[in-house]
């Protein structure tokens, strides 16, 4: 059976009969139980409700009783307030009055109440004009006292309880309320004027202290509060000075104004707030002195307010003593600021100013684009800070503004506290405004300007170089330097003034066009170098304004003053050195990129000959000449890279990059000295110069060797006939076994094969085309070595296919061809030997030549070879002398290849050959000569030449001119000094 659950409403409406009819006994009992439970619950709820209502009733009764007591207390307080207002003039309004109490009582007994009220109202009517005059005249403290007096008068009139008509004063004099409304707004005007004075650093300490005292009196603040407001005002003044587009102001004036504001603020803090132990010191804690003077209630007689013109009126005699003897009163006692709090606050303020200056001056300096402009600002700061430097006495008018109407203060304000004393008192340490606030910004901006100028120069140089590389095909002088060298121009001769200077002090650019041609510097290379040098010269001149000064050379002039102007010179020059090195690295990286592209293009093009390949080679040569010219034609680059060593290196002449004439002592000193940054940079230029020429060497030598090998290995008859040379017939006499003389005729080659001469001539033409006389020696050696190695490889290929390789169908090498090849090989070896820098390579090259010679001689009959050798040697010497001028670029400077016959005693000849030493790089196209014994027959000459080996010739030449080499100095590379060194040996 389901449980029977009935709610309270169901129980109320339950029908008993229906209950017994529908439910059994157990359900009825359950309904009864629920009903009784509901009844008990209702009873409990009723009891709780009655208890809570009763408690609220008791609380309400207590509240009503409390309200009654509070109302009684309020009534008592209102009555007490009325009594206090009634006694206000007797107590509070007379507080601070130090006049004679008997006089005060006597004046109160005089029946002049109405006239007293009228005179006070008359004084209130005159107050607005007087306050305005005080504000306009800058006498803010007097304006503050007048305002406080006006407020005192209004309060006394409204609260005066001594007369029976006090309640009717406002109705009798309605002007009172209107006049106070006209006076009350002066408080805001005075405070605004005072805060304007606090922001003005040109105001004197006296005026600043009076403005602070006015704020303290008007706002009932403490010295700590006004000190905080003073620092905030000066912080706001610092920030306002950084606002751009200020009318009539420049960056120099703004920066100087900020530093002046900070220095003046520190001095004013010392004079206005610092509490010195020496009570007799002037301008120390002016704020407390002024407060004491204004609020001092120990003086007798009238107040200072009535000493001017207020007490001259006829109504003044009716003014009460509470008005005539009025003095402002401070609600709290004004105590001096402690030194610890003063120093802590000042240090925090200085840190804040440093942060603001870093931001503000940093933004202003973005408009300064030259170091000369920075120097002008620095010099102006030096002059400004000199006024604050340590001097015991100064004229106060130099940096303070005097009050016009205070002659006594003007006489007292003649002593200036030393800056060190001020800093130690206020911030407990020495403060250098230059070092703390502004010096890092100057150095950072100067470095930024230098970096921007160098970056601009580098980008411009890259654009110019790229433009020249693009247009090189249309520039004949860049494609063929020889046409530029051998074309006479008007500016070839140097200026007349250059002959009055020594060689060591001459700049490379002063040598005229002949110097440029001797160094093979083409016009575009000169233009690029001149552009770079002119930009660096402008940069150095700009930096010189900041680092040096002609009028300040003495050391004591740098020390005396607020700071050292040139303390950052070394830092700036070091940064210039580093920044210049980075920019040159960028330029060299660009050159390296162009050279890599050229190498890749030449590798991809292979043996094909086209115009693009020639253009690429000319571009590489131009870059090589540019790297060499940057060392010789950019003296200002050298100055930048030397940095702080630039001054010492000014007197040292710039030597060419290629062939230098240094004495042994100079070479040793240079090797012992530590290399400078300029030396490292020259090494980089040399590496990239050699790399550029190496592109040309690889390409041109490869082309020459390929053509030479093709002709040498070509067995076509037409080619052989076309390349054949004429042979000489020589008659020789031989003695038979029977003692008879037999005359026979032999044929021997007298000149090298045409393809050999053509190859060597093209090689010389290419060397001369690129200005071979000015090329560094390793470059020429590399080209000749690479070409000679290739030619030897071609001969090795011919010999390997001609005899040893039996598998080939090629005909064996004939004796005639072997003789011609032997002559060609010796001719090549005579002209192109001695070009190896490494001794091992030289030995290996000589061994290869020896092997080839032996291989060719093995193909000639031994008996014929003995007969042919002297005559071939004679023909080889004669042919070499004939080709010496044409192929002079290939001749070794270390090894003479032919001789000169001097005149015997008593014999005259019509000409002399200029004897040259092996080191004469200037005359590489002229025949080198040496000496041997006199004239004779050709046979004796041949025998003499056979006896002279290469080492002996070299020994004779070097020993003959040893005195000339040792007597020459560093300037022996010039033509005139060279001729001078020949004078003793040539004409003797």
Give structural notes:
This protein has 988 residues and is mainly alpha-helical. The protein folds into four domains: 8-86; 101-426, no CATH class; 440-660 and 679-697, no CATH class; 714-892, no CATH class. It is built from 39 helices and two strands. Strands 1-2 form a two-stranded antiparallel ribbon.
How many independent structural domains?
4
Low-confidence stretches: 92-111, 391-414, 550-557, 651-665, 802-809, 896-988
Which radius of gyration do the C-alpha atoms yield? 56 Å
Overall geometry comes to elongated
Give the number of helices: 39
Share in β-strands: under 5%
What is the helix fraction of residues, given as a range? 55-70%
Number of strands: 2
How far is it from the N-terminal to the C-terminal residue, by CA? Answer: 159 Å
Mean pLDDT: 77
Main β sheet profile: 2 strands, antiparallel
Describe the strand arrangement of the main beta sheet, using strand numbers: 1-2
Structural class, by secondary structure, is mainly alpha
Question: How is this fold's topology laid out?
Answer:
Layout: H1 8-12, H2 16-22, H3 25-86, H4 101-109, H5 113-136, H6 140-158, H7 169-172, H8 175-184, H9 186-199, H10 205-218, H11 223-241, H12 251-272, H13 286-295, H14 321-324, H15 339-365, H16 371-386, H17 407-412, H18 419-426, H19 433-470, H20 476-479, H21 481-485, H22 512-518, H23 523-547, H24 555-559, H25 569-605, H26 611-632, H27 635-642, H28 664-672, H29 677-713, H30 717-723, E1 727-735, E2 741-749, H31 754-769, H32 777-804, H33 815-832, H34 839-857, H35 862-882, H36 938-947, H37 950-960, H38 962-967, H39 975-986
Helix pairs in contact: 5-6, 5-8, 5-9, 6-8, 6-9, 6-10, 9-10, 9-11, 10-11, 10-13, 11-12, 11-15, 12-15, 12-16, 12-18, 15-19, 16-19, 16-23, 19-23, 19-25, 23-26, 23-27, 25-26, 25-27, 25-29, 26-29, 29-31, 29-32, 32-33, 32-34, 33-34, 33-35, 35-36
């Amino acid at each position: 059976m389901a449980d029977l659950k009935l709610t309270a409403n169901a129980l109320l409406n339950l029908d008993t009969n229906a209950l017994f009819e529908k439910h059994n006994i157990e359900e009825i009992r359950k309904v009864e139980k629920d009903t009784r439970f509901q009844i008990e619950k209702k009873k409990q709820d009723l009891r709780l409700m009655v208890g809570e209502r009763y408690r609220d009733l008791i609380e309400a009764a207590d509240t009503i009783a409390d309200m009654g007591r509070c109302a009684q207390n309020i009534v008592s307080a209102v009555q007490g307030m009325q009594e206090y207002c009634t006694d206000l003039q007797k107590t509070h309004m007379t507080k601070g009055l130090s006049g004679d109490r008997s006089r005060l009582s006597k004046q109160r007994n005089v029946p002049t109440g109405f006239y007293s009220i009228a005179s006070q109202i008359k004084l209130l009517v005159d107050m607005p004009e007087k306050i305005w005059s005080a504000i306009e005249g800058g006498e803010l403290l007097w304006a503050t006292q007048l305002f406080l007096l006006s407020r005192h008068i209004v309060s006394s009139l409204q609260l005066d309880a001594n007369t029976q008509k006090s309640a009717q004063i406002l109705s009798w004099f309605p002007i009172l309320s209107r006049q106070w409304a006209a006076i009350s707004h002066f408080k805001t005007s005075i405070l605004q004027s005072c805060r304007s004075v606090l922001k003005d650093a040109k105001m004197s300490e006296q005026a600043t202290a009076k403005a602070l005292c006015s704020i303290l009196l008007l706002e009932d603040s403490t010295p700590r509060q006004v000190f905080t407001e003073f620092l905030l005002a000066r912080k706001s003044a610092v920030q306002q000075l950084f606002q751009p587009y200020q009318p009539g102001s420049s960056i120099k004036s703004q920066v100087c104004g900020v530093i002046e504001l900070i220095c003046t603020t520190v001095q004013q803090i010392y004079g206005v707030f610092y509490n010195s132990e020496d009570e007799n010191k002037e301008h120390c804690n002016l704020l407390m002195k002024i407060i004491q003077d204004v609020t001092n209630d120990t003086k007798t007689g009238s107040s200072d307010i009535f000493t001017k013109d207020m007490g001259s009126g006829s109504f003044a005699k009716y003014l009460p003593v509470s008005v005539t003897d009025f003095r402002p009163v401070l609600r709290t006692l004004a105590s001096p600021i402690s030194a610890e709090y003063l120093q802590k606050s000042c240090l925090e303020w200085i840190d804040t100013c440093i942060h603001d200056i870093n931001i503000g001056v940093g933004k202003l300096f973005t408009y300064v684009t030259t170091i000369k402009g920075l120097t002008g600002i620095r010099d102006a700061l030096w002059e400004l800070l000199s006024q604050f430097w340590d001097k015991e006495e100064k004229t106060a008018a130099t940096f303070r503004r005097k009050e016009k109407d205070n002659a006594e203060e003007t006489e007292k304000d003649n002593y200036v506290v030393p800056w060190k004393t001020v800093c130690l008192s206020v911030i407990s340490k020495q403060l250098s405004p230059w070092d703390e606030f502004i010096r890092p910004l100057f150095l950072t901006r100067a470095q930024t300007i230098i970096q921007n100028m160098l970056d601009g120069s580098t980008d411009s140089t890259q654009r110019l170089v790229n433009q020249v590389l693009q247009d090189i095909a249309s520039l004949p002088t860049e494609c063929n330097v020889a046409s530029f060298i051998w074309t006479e121009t008007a500016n070839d001769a140097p200026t007349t003034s250059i002959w009055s200077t020594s060689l060591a002090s001459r700049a490379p650019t002063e040598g005229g066009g002949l110097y440029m041609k001797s160094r093979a510097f083409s016009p575009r290379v000169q233009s690029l170098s001149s552009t770079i040098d002119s930009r660096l010269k402008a940069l150095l001149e700009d930096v010189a304004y900041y680092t040096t000064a002609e009028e300040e050379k003495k050391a004591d002039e740098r020390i005396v003053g607020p700071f050292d102007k040139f303390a950052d010179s070394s830092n700036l020059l070091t940064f210039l050195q580093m920044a210049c090195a980075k920019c040159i690295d960028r330029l060299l990286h660009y050159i390296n990129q162009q050279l890599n592209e050229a190498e890749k293009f030449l590798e991809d093009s292979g043996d094909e000959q086209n115009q693009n390949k020639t253009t690429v080679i000319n571009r590489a040569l131009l870059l090589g000449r540019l790297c060499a010219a940057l060392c010789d034609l950019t003296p200002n680059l050298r100055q930048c890279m030397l940095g702080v060593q630039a001054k010492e290196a000014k007197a040292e002449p710039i030597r060419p990059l290629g062939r230098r004439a240094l004495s042994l002592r100079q070479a040793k000193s240079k090797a012992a000295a530590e290399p400078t940054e300029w030396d490292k940079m020259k090494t980089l230029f040399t590496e990239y110069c050699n790399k550029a020429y190496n592109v040309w060497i690889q390409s041109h030598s490869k082309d020459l060797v390929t053509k030479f090998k093709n002709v040498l290995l070509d067995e076509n008859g037409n080619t052989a006939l076309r390349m054949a040379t004429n042979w000489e017939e020589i008659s020789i006499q031989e003695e038979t076994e029977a003692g008879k003389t037999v005359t026979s005729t032999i044929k021997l080659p007298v000149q090298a094969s045409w393809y050999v001469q053509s190859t060597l001539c093209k090689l010389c033409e290419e060397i001369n085309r690129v200005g071979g006389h000015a090329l560094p020696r390793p470059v020429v050696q590399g080209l000749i070595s690479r070409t000679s190695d290739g030619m030897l490889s071609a001969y090795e290929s011919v010999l390997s296919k001609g005899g040893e390789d039996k598998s080939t169908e090629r005909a064996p090498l004939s004796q005639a061809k072997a003789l011609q090849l032997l002559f060609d090989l010796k001719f090549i070896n005579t002209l192109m030997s001695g070009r190896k820098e490494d001794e091992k390579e030289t030995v290996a090259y000589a061994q290869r030549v020896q092997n080839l010679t032996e291989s060719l001689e093995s193909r000639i009959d031994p008996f014929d070879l003995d007969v042919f050798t002297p005559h071939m040697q004679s023909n080889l010497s004669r042919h070499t002398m004939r080709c010496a001028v044409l192929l002079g670029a290939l001749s070794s400077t270390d090894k003479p290849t032919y001789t000169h016959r001097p005149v015997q005693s008593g014999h005259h000849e019509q000409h002399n050959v200029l004897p040259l030493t092996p080191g004469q790089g200037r005359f590489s196209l002229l025949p080198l000569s040496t000496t041997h014994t006199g004239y004779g027959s050709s046979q004796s000459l041949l025998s003499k030449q056979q006896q002279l080996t290469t080492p002996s010739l070299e020994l004779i030449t070097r020993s003959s001119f040893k005195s000339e080499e040792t007597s020459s100095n560093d300037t022996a590379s010039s033509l005139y000094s060279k001729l001078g060194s020949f004078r003793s040996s040539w004409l003797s």
